[in-house]
Design goal:
Elements: H1 10-26, H2 36-42, E1 50-54, H3 62-65, E2 73-77, H4 85-98, E3 102-108, H5 112-123, H6 129-135, H7 151-171, H8 174-178, E4 186-192, E5 199-201
Parallel strand pairs: 1-2, 1-3, 3-4
Antiparallel strand pairs: 4-5
Length: 215
């Protein structure tokens, strides 16, 4: 396996994440502690190989899920793994200044934010104003879901739909379209299973996931 600083492509970065999650699931994680020499080296600069847009849920810490060391992942966390002005700016920073080749939108089963959006759309639930504003970013992803599904299946479908909508928003930005022909950067969705610890990477809706998410 190449050293993290030798990772140059999105494919290598994705392989690194998958291998790390496999170690995490099997109980063979490699990074229980951090040496002072590592911290001293990282203080000079950061060179993460992937950017993760994940949910704020305390049960889904990306560094642990992917068995990644300090400095390997650039993490953005917000309830429901949704976009917003500050999130978009952080993603742009990751692309422009950190040059991470891989961008992952990481949802998780049993997401409370997605569950609240389902309750609002299908059951008329109402939430406090700031939570309602957050849910405005999730509700549109639920348009084509089958409301007759059992609750657990509906929530699972909604979690994936929300991840896919976030990816589409990233890829449809004017800046991303302008760099379509450049390649070299991958945008991919994934869903974490709270029970098993496994991360399921999603197949893309359409070709072109290599578009840089400069939003």
């Amino acid at each position: 396996m190449p050293h993290v600083h030798e990772i140059r492509t999105a494919e290598e970065a994705l392989t690194r994440l998958k291998e790390g999650n496999a170690r995490f699931v099997s109980g063979q994680a490699r990074f229980p502690t951090v040496h002072k020499e590592v911290l001293a080296e990282l203080a000079k600069r950061q060179r993460p190989y992937a950017t993760i847009l994940g949910c704020s849920d305390s049960r889904v810490p990306p560094e642990l899920v992917f068995d990644a060391a300090f400095g390997e992942l650039f993490i953005i966390r917000v309830a429901g793994n949704v976009l917003g002005e500050s999130i978009n700016g952080t993603l742009q920073y990751a692309s422009t200044h950190l040059h991470t080749p891989l961008f992952v939108v990481l949802g998780h089963e049993g997401c409370g934010a997605v569950e609240a959006a389902l309750a609002e759309k299908f059951h008329g639930a109402r939430h406090r104003s700031r939570i309602a504003a957050l849910l405005e970013n999730i509700v549109p992803a639920l348009e084509n879901l089958d409301a007759t599904l059992p609750p657990e299946a509906l929530l699972s479908a909604a979690v994936e739909a929300n991840v896919r909508r976030t990816i589409r928003e990233l890829l449809e930005s004017p800046e991303a379209k302008a760099r379509m022909a450049q390649g070299g950067v991958m945008v991919i969705g994934a869903v974490y299973d709270l029970v098993t610890g496994r991360v399921r990477f999603l197949e893309p809706d359409t070709p072109g996931r290599s578009v840089p998410p400069i939003v």
